[in-house]
C-alpha cells in the first residue's frame, strides 16, 4: 500500500517536517466529549495533498455539523478543494474549528464558524439563518456530529446518557434538516453519517448503535420523500477512524488496538473517507439516493 507524505503545516500553519502516516496509536484518553483533535497523538490526517479538486462543488454552500475536526474536518477541506463555501457547526472546540477555517481559506473558499448546541431546535434554526445571511443559499447539508459512550450492558446506561445520545445523534439531524429543507432547491444533497455499528450491533455501544441504525432508516425514508423534488439523501457508514470521538469515549488501552479487528488491521484516517462525501454531494452522485456507502477497512456487513 502506498503511503502518502504529509506535513504538519496543515495543523500549525508553518512547515515543520514531512512524516509518514502512523497507523497505530499510543494509549491515550480525553476526559470529555466532544474530544479535541489538537490533543491527539499522532494528529489525524485530514488532507490528502494528492487530492486535486476539479470544481465539482464550485460556488455551492455546504453546512457540515461536527466540521471542526475528524471526518467533518476532512469533508470540509475536500469540499473546499472542490470549490464550496463552508459553514461549520460545532459545540465549543474553538481551537480545532479555527484550524479547519484556516485550511478552508487557504484553499480559497469562505468558512463560517457557528458554535453551539445542536440539541436545541432554536440553534439548528439559527445555523440556517446565519448561513442564508452569509451565503444566500444552502446546497449541501452534511449531518455528521455525534457522541458515543461505552457501557457494558443496557442496565448500566443512565437515562440521561440515552437521551443525550439520541438528542445529538438523531434528533439534531431532524431539527437541522427540517430548518434547512425550505431553502433546498432541486439538485441539493443531504449526506448523513451513520456507522458500521448499525449493521453489526456492537454490544457495548447499545445507545450509539441504535441511533446509527435510526439514521440509516431516516436516510431511506427521507430520500423517498424528497426524490420528486430533486433532492438526494444518502449516508456514509464509517468503520473505525482516527478521530477525536475515539480517545474521548474509549479507554486508553482500547486506542492502542483501534482498527485491529477489521480485515485491513488498522483504523482509517479522515482523508480516506472524505471523497465519498464529495461523490454524494456532487453531480457525480446524481443517480444515487437512499443509499449507504460503507468505508470500513473491509469489515463484512449485511445491507
UniProtKB/TrEMBL annotation:
<comment type="similarity">
    <text>Belongs to the short-chain dehydrogenases/reductases (SDR) family.</text>
</comment>
<protein>
    <submittedName>
        <fullName>NAD(P)-dependent oxidoreductase</fullName>
    </submittedName>
</protein>
<keyword id="KW-0560">Oxidoreductase</keyword>
<dbReference type="InterPro" id="IPR036291">
    <property type="entry name" value="NAD(P)-bd_dom_sf"/>
</dbReference>
<dbReference type="Pfam" id="PF13561">
    <property type="entry name" value="adh_short_C2"/>
</dbReference>
<dbReference type="InterPro" id="IPR020904">
    <property type="entry name" value="Sc_DH/Rdtase_CS"/>
</dbReference>
<dbReference type="GO" id="GO:0008206">
    <property type="term" value="P:bile acid metabolic process"/>
</dbReference>
<dbReference type="InterPro" id="IPR002347">
    <property type="entry name" value="SDR_fam"/>
</dbReference>
<dbReference type="GO" id="GO:0016614">
    <property type="term" value="F:oxidoreductase activity, acting on CH-OH group of donors"/>
</dbReference>
